[in-house]
Structures are given as C-alpha cells and as structure tokens.
Amino acid sequence: MNFYGLDFGTANTSLAVNQGDNIDVLRLFNQNTSIPSTYFFDFEDNSECIGELAFDKFYFGDRGRFLRSFKSALGTPTIDHEIQIKSNRFSVKHITQNFIGQIIGRAEELQGQRIESLVVGRPVQFVDDDKAADAKAQQQLLDIVSGLGVKYVEFQFEPIAAALNYGSTVEQEELVLVVDIGAGTSDFSVVKFLPSNRGAANAEVISNCGVHIGGNDFDKAIALNKAMPLFGYKQRFKRREQLELPHHYYMNAATWHKIDHLYDRKVINALKEIQPQITQPVLIQRFLDLITSRQLHKVLVGAESVKKALTNDCSANIDFDFLERGLLVNIQKNSFEDLVKPLCVSVVESAKKAIALAGLDEQSVDTVYVTGGSMGIQQLFDMVIDEFKEAKIVDGDRATSVAKGLALYSKQIFR
C-alpha cells in the first residue's frame, strides 16, 4: 500500500508518496517536484492550466484570467468571491478545487492507482487569532479534497511535517525548533527526538505556533510602499487635504488573492468619480489603466522579482513599460531592508514564542531546522540564524520537506 502527503502551499505545491522504505516527491509536471500554485484560464481556446504553464501564459501576455495564492482565501470571505471567466462565474473555492484536482489526478496517473487516503498539510493558523475562521478554513479544505473523491483525509501541521522529515535523520537526542516560512504563513514547532524512539513516528511535539506572515507580505510591502504611489496611493483630496484616497483599493491591489476584487465595474466607476477630486488625477488614471487592462498582477510579479534580486544586488527596478514607456521605480537594498524589518522581527518573535510555549529557553534548543521557500529572503534568514546562533542550524529542503513529512505521517496513521 502507498501512503500520500499533499503540501498545498500558497506559492508552491508538492505531493509525496511513501512506498516501502522510500519516500518520493512525485514529478507532477515537466519533471518538477514542486509546482507553482497558479491557475490560468485561456480565453483563446477555453483551456485551463496550472503551475509553470499558467505562469508562462500570464507572463507572455496570453489573454485570460490568472490566479495565484488562492490558499490564502481559505477561512475568509474571499473564498466565496466569484470570478468572471468569459460568460461564466466561478468561486475561488471552485478554482482551488480545480487546481488540487489536477494535482491529484496527475499523481494518480503516475502511480496507476486511485488515491483514497491522503494527509494534507495545513498552517498552524490559517487565520490569525480567530479559532472559528481557522476551523472554517480547515473544513473548506476538507470539503475540497473530499469532493475530489478522496475517501479518507487527515491534516497535519506543516512545521510538524517538516520536523518528521528531519526526524528520520536524527541519531541522538535532540530538541529541535522547526522554522517553516512559506509564502502565506510562518509556522514553528518545538519537537523532541529521543534516541530510543528515533525517527518520525515517535517524535514528541512540545509546542507549535504560527503567524500569518510569509513571503507574500514582503511582496505586498514593496508593492504598496514603493510601486503604488505611482498609481495614486496616499493621494489627498483637493478640498479636504487631511483626507487620503481610500487605502483599501491599494491594499487589495497588493494582495495576490484579492486582486480580482478590483476587476469590477463598481470599483472602476467609484475611482472615476473620485479621480477629479484628487490632487494628481493623472495617477488615478494610471491606476484605472492598470485595472481595466487587467495587469495588476504584474505589479506583484515585479515586487517579487525585486525581493529576489536584492538578495545579491544593491538595487533593483520594477518596470512598468508595459503600461507607460519609461515608468519604473528603483528600490535600494537598504531601503528594502528598512521596509521589511518589522516583518522579519515579527517572524523571529513568533519563533521565540514557540520556545516559550514549550516552557523552555533559547539555550535549550539543540537544532534549528529551517525550511520553506521564503527562507530564501536573506535578511530574514540572517535574523533567524543570529537569534539562535548557539544552536546547530540545519537548512532543509525548502521545497519538499513538508510533503515528505506528510507522507511519513500518512503511513503512521493509515497503515
């Protein structure tokens, strides 16, 4: 019998299989073990695609609808938001199910068998400090996966799954802090491995916690504070200079799973009505051009590119040539670091909270196991390492460690 684990991530998704003594992360599309959590509906041929192909179609300007980071909508009203796709309207929940359905379908094709039982990863908190919304988010995800024909679905916290993956390599007693920084959330667990109970199955989970901060929030900070002023963010009214243009338009524009809220005739009409009242109406016109041409996603793509570039470079640009020749914003590395430092501090404080919840101090931690794609943000990585410099640092497989741990756990509970 094979045992499966699905890491449905905000930015990327992987599915692992535990067969015998081997755990493999399936190469779902184009031999990739991790694929972007993206969806594209092509207006030219009415086809749907996901992953790298969806991103490529968007990037190269194919006509259609592009969606990303829809996991972040779970537990929020956005999950029921309906998106206009030609003459039809589909909820974000429906699109999420289409995406996961293609993942599971491809896995079943590769394995030559139905997947009837599955462990799905989840963040420690889908929604910060709201137990009802958190429970609702898990139920929504359960409904989505069960609706695809999977008979038995269990959940495991993503940082615990990462810990289980690491535990299979432990050779002596270790107290491990798992730091899992994804695109949508940051999750932490304190786990004790005993030499007599070596491996994943008997790890003792002492504490876990999480915060709704991830790589997307770094993109949002760049887009909102560096790019959106070119489109009217924080513009004031001519006759009431103490008032700024409502921020929620720009907050939505800088949030992957809320961008589609702006592609609405009511929003466009409201902005047109406001435009003559603003000190620089030309900036609002730019914003309207961005909305009506359905190119808001390109702002966040540019912000994400800047975030990655500033790991090695001293400065980087977001280029808006696609909208207006010569329009760009330059971002210096020191300015970026100042901008996102509060986010980094919040992540580190949450990691420290996991240790405090375990009733321990930082000096008790033997190992810090770091994983998750957003640990590639150098400033964040450095701050985590500096905070726990007395511990051994293990840099895990940032793309697939959670999926492997989920497959390990799947064998434990379904065998």
Please tell me about this protein's structure.
With 415 residues, the protein is of the alpha+beta class. It contains twelve helices and 18 strands. Strands 1, 2, 3, 4, 10 and 11 form a six-stranded mixed beta sheet that branches. Strands 14-13-12-17-18 form a five-stranded mixed beta sheet, sandwiched between helices. The longest helix is centred in the last third of the chain and has 25 residues, at 333-357. The chain is globular, with a radius of gyration of 22 Å. The N and C termini lie close together (8 Å). Mean pLDDT is 92; it is low at 196-201.
Determine the structural class based on helices, strands and strand pairing.
alpha+beta
Describe the main β-sheet briefly: 6 strands, mixed
Helix content: 25-40%
**Can you write the helix and strand succession as a string?**
EEEEEEHEEEHEHEHEEEHHHHHEEHEHEH
Count of DSSP strands: 18
- Shape call: globular
How much is the average pLDDT?
92
Number of helices: 12
- The fraction of residues in strands falls at 15-25%
Low-confidence stretches: 196-201
Distance between the termini: 8 Å
Rounded to the nearest angstrom, the radius of gyration is 22 Å
